[in-house]
């Protein structure tokens, strides 16, 4: 189990792009895309997330904060 935070810094907004994820809320990207049993937080930003296949992973939890205005 790992913590993953959506940063949405890559140009493509692809869920599986490792450059959109960080191991800490404000940390460096490149932490890898979420995998099964990860704790995922999407707390802020407006970049919509694309190419998410919910059947591909079984997350431990998914938190979407009130400051996130994009779509998934």
Helix share of residues? Answer: under 10%
Separation of termini? 22 Å
- Spans of 5+ residues with little confidence (pLDDT < 50)? none
* Strand line-up of the largest beta sheet: 2-1-3-4
Q: How would a textbook summarize the main sheet? A: 4 strands, mixed
Instruction: Give the overall silhouette.
Output: globular
Number of DSSP-assigned strands: 4
- Taking Cα atoms only, what radius of gyration do you get, to the nearest Å? 11 Å
Total helical segments: 0
Helix/strand class: mainly beta
* Integer average pLDDT: 91
Order of helices and strands: EEEE
How much strand?
25-35%
Question: Your description of this structure?
Answer:
The chain has 72 residues and is mainly β. 0% of the residues lie in helices and 29% in strands. The protein has a four-stranded mixed beta sheet with strand order 2-1-3-4, with no helix packed on it. The termini are far apart.
Explain the layout of strands and helices.
Elements: E1 3-6, E2 21-22, E3 39-45, E4 61-68
Parallel strand pairs: 1-3, 3-4
Antiparallel strand pairs: 1-2
List keywords for this structure.
globular; 29% strand; 72 residues; mainly beta
In short:
The chain is an all-beta fold. The protein has strands spanning 3-6, 21-22, 39-45, 61-68. The mean pLDDT is 91.
């Amino acid at each position: 189990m790992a913590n993953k935070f959506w940063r949405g810094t890559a140009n493509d907004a692809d869920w599986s792009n490792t450059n959109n994820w960080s191991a800490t809320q404000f940390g460096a990207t490149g932490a890898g895309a979420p995998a099964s049993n990860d704790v995922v937080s999407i707390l802020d930003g407006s970049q919509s997330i694309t190419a998410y296949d919910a059947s591909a992973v079984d997350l431990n939890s998914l938190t979407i904060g009130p400051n996130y205005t994009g779509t998934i």
